[in-house]
């Protein structure tokens, strides 16, 4: 067993011990230890609205680290996946990227998020629980880390491309800063049928590496991205703007259904 696998397994086990007993009313689908890199964007509002079901709208923060963000592009290395039965999943690791929108239902005020599109390296994971994932014919990820003189630096390369033209890529080099503990519980509504949803419970560490609103120390050394094509072309028309660069060195996610 590698050190990374052992660490991921320990995180999953620890999180299981912390799961509230009240969650027994829900059915656990899976639990995973993940590494994530997230870009918050402001994209064309009209184009984004067309991606949402009728009666739902994007929720845009007016302050804080997520100010002005209406779309999140999240690159995910699923290091260890545990099934609902507590055993390793049939596909115990995975790599993917998805686009998520903070949303609310206009009439009821019900709030949460919607995943409106995703690219995954595992063909069997498409179209997924929300019916929006595509298999990426190109799915590459590389992550490196090094330490010297008390400083931790790293680099990440992610590339996902679908045969139909959808593309999401990022290259980033950074110096890691102190991470803040976070987490919570969020409903992820099905964009094809918002009466259905999954519950994501997370325990995480977040390192906000660059943010023009909260102005933490800028730890991004090099950065570039490509996104667009196919179903997501209208969102990435060249006028989009990155508003936050966030690293999640560890991220424990428990997925349940009501």
How many helical stretches? Answer: 2
Radius of gyration: 18 Å
Global structural class: mainly beta
The proportion of strand residues reads over 45%
Helical amount: under 10%
Distance between the termini: 35 Å
From the 3D structure, determine the CATH topology: Acetoacetate decarboxylase-like
Provide the CATH top-level class: Mainly Beta
- Low-confidence runs of at least 5 consecutive residues: 1-24
Secondary-structure element order, N to C? HEHEEEEEEEEEEE
Just name the CATH architecture.
Answer: Beta Barrel
Q: Average pLDDT, to the nearest integer?
A: 92
What is the number of beta strands?
A: 12
Detailed description of the structure:
By secondary structure, the chain is mainly beta. The protein has a single domain, classed as Acetoacetate decarboxylase-like (Beta Barrel), CATH 2.40.400. It contains 2 helices and 12 strands. The chain has helices spanning 3-18, 45-49; strands at 27-42, 56-58, 71-83, 94-105, 111-120, 133-148, 151-162, 167-175, 180-190, 193-210, 220-228, 241-257. Strands 1, 2, 3, 4, 5, 6, 7, 8, 9, 10, 11 and 12 form a 12-stranded mixed sheet that branches. Strand 9 (180-190) and strand 10 form a beta hairpin. The two termini are 35 Å apart.
């Amino acid at each position: 067993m590698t050190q990374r696998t052992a660490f991921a397994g320990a995180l999953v086990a620890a999180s299981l011990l912390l799961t509230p007993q009240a969650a027994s009313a829900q059915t656990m689908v899976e639990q995973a230890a993940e590494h994530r890199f997230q870009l918050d964007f402001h994209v064309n509002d009209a184009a984004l609205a067309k991606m949402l079901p009728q009666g739902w709208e994007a929720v845009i923060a007016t302050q804080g680290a997520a100010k002005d963000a209406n779309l999140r592009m999240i690159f995910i290395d699923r290091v260890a996946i545990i099934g609902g039965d507590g055993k390793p999943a049939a596909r115990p690791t995975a790599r993917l990227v998805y686009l998520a929108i903070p949303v609310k239902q206009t009439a009821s005020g019900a709030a949460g998020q919607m995943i409106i599109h995703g690219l995954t390296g595992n063909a069997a994971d498409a179209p997924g629980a929300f019916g929006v994932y595509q298999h990426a014919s190109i799915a590459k990820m590389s992550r490196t880390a090094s330490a010297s003189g008390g400083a931790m630096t790293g680099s990440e390369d992610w590339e996902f491309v679908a045969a139909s033209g959808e593309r999401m890529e990022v290259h980033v080099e950074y110096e890691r800063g102190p991470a803040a503990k976070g987490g919570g519980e969020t409903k992820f509504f099905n964009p094809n049928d918002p009466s259905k949803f999954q519950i994501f419970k997370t325990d995480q560490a977040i390192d906000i590496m660059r943010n023009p609103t909260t102005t933490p120390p800028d730890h991004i050394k090099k950065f570039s991205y490509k996104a667009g094509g196919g179903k997501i072309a209208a969102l990435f028309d060249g006028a989009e703007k990155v508003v936050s660069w966030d690293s999640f060195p560890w991220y424990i996610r428990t997925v349940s259904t009501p």
